[in-house]
């Protein structure tokens, strides 16, 4: 019974923890412009994150080594330093977007200007990192994030024409958009689903929680059930936008437009739920990205790291996270629009994906690390296929951004 | 030309310095991370045998990013005799706190992080 509860808790946490500000904004933007015609990208992205998250979790559980230690060891200091530079900057951009997202969500709830919420949100993130145990942190934000199910509820309450939605999935009955813009948003959506920090966080989290080979089946269930259900919520966000915003040609530029369909479909009560969900999801992702910034730097240099240690015993790790949060607050206080930061962060995430995923695939095949737990042939085939997709997306991202004027 | 004969298999554990030693995580006896191994100091005896004299730490990031090597005087040395075991990591017999290679960690701990309330307790 206790074991069953553990499995359920893990799955629910994975669902709630799957979505972040990148998924929220990108799915709503895509839904309002392309309907459900890009839903297939979410499916492709979810399978990819399942494959690589479970692979990095397995490597961490078997070898006790987290992803960036492996990147440093396999790529050598020079290539790994370039990788660290890119991953760290994109992670910082994502952290900035998430802290901004918390502030925007709190603004929806309180009508207090986001710039007043930004320092409060960042301080709260730091306080949780400083004082709250890893497991509790993950479970609380994950479970509260489940409130985002309100998006799925809203789809039904809005009473859409289901055959029209189905036609959109097949790419029919949509306003004309150019092919390059379509593919630009396809890559943005892919980057939002597969953000690199999720792998840094997942593998380091496995070390934090002291996973061993025994925990592998549990973690595999969490990922394989939780992430696809999280992906369904992503599609529900796009569907909400496709039902309400697309017919009126409203383009999503603010968080209030993201939640507008929920308010129309389910009224104030459902809106309250969705705001709680957004605060939890962005807060959880802010924690994950802040920790990831500490994890990547500390693992590259071989510093002492981890929330399981007292902060005194991982001083540089904690200092790195404090500096990153201060920088994020500094950037947001200039008045830059967090939604815009988010839109750029997901595209740059797509650019950085191969840097993260190639070393994991290599080490997951190394018997000296993995013993009998090396990748199976099926896993390698799927992993290699995805590496190809990731590479194409990464190479195409910047040219498409230039050609389309960032999807204008 | 004759093909090169493969080397005689050596007794014991064979370590490839590049693959198994460089850039590996180094841990102290309590499994506290010390640093990542940056370079090795090799010693050549009179009979030509090469042995590892010491491990070198630090200074790598900026130097390697620019394509060079950090000057040896800026790196911290730990003698190879302090190594007890090599597996996925390199295990030392000496504590991290006593090593020069971790002075920045101690400085940050004593002057910054240690001064914030709650730094001495693990998160609950």
From TrEMBL, chain A:
Its main location: membrane. The keyword Transcription does not apply. The chain crosses the membrane at residues 37-60, 81-104, 116-134, 141-162, 182-202, 223-250, 270-292, 313-332, 344-364, 385-406. Keywords: Membrane, Transmembrane, Transmembrane helix, Transport. It holds the Pfam family Nramp. It is a multi-pass membrane protein. It is found in: Membrane. The keyword DNA-binding does not apply. This is Natural resistance-associated macrophage protein. It comes from Occultella glacieicola.
UniProtKB/TrEMBL annotation, chain B:
This is Uncharacterized protein.
